[in-house]
Amino acid sequence: MASYEFLAHSYDDLMRDADYARRADFVEKLFLRTAKRPVRTVLDLACGTGTMTCLLTERGYELIAVDGSEDMLMEAREKAQGLAGVEPLFLHQPMPRLDLNDTVDAAICCLDSLNYLTSPRDVRRTLERLRLFVSPGGALVFDVHARAKLEAMDEQVYLDEGDDVYCVWRTEFRRELLDYCVDLFTRRADGAWERETEYHRQRYYSAEDLTRWLAEAGFGNIRTWGDCRMRRPNDSDGRIYFSAIRE
Questions:
Q1: How many CB atoms neighbour CB 119 within 10 A?
Q2: Helical residues (DSSP H) of 35-119, grouped into ranges
Q3: Most exposed: 12, 71, 169, 232, by fewest CB within 10 Å?
Q4: Residue 106's beta-bridge partner residues?
Q5: What whole-number distance in Å separates Cα of residue 244 and Cα of residue 247?
Q6: Alpha carbons 24 and 27: distance in angstroms, whole number
């Protein structure tokens, strides 16, 4: 997964339109629809800066939050200070090498984080590791980019702007891979602007492949959903949600 070394500090400012509360609502609906056991403990895999972790903690869940970027985890830990509820446990681990001391009632992996695994073998390993740490009857919920969204991103330039940050994303989608160059401009205390550049890569995965890999890993009742919609996905959805039960 990309390190987010420079982007981590500005990530929340640039993701203000992600509507995390709506996504947390949808995840909870899928817990109720999918899980065969009460959901109390939740793994937030690839938790990023911890926004979903904090939202679910405040809703009464006990969270284990895992991410492969130390910079993102630093932001998440700071954000979680003083939360009402049980303090989340934060772990620095890559997704394919997930290793917990106990099982959880449900696991989530949000905002196309799985697409950052550009090796199909790593995706399959991640699903196998998740099966080890989701309790029988527990729910797995994650989302990935839809192909139409990635195709529309080919050779595009996107601008994100905050009070003290300006970000330019240049994207290219070729051979199932989305490459994007991120130029991040941040305002320093003296008023000058500082520029940093990061390169990120994601891979498209089809619903058919992911469904097969989930089944091979030991998950059942596998269903796909629209982008925060309790219906089958269609061409208007930028993301496709998956729900499954650990058998």
A1: 10
A2: 51-58, 70-80
A3: 232
A4: 42, 139
A5: 9
A6: 5
Comparing C-alpha atoms, which of 227, 220, 200, 167 is closest to residue 26?
227
Are 48 and 72 in contact, with CB atoms under 8 Å apart? yes
80, 54 contact by CB (below 8 A): yes
Residue 78 confidence (pLDDT) above 50: yes
What is the length of the chain? 247
* Helix, strand or coil, per DSSP, at residue 19: coil
Q: Would you state the structure tokens that stand for residue 151, as one six-digit string?
A: 């195709």
Confirm if 143 and 111 have CB atoms less than 8 A apart.
Answer: yes
Query: Helix or strand or coil: residue 75?
Result: helix
Which of 150, 170, 45 is CA-nearest to residue 107?
45
Q: Cα–chain-centroid distance for residue 217?
A: 20
| The pLDDT of residue 163 | 80
pTM: 0.95
pLDDT at 100 over 50: yes
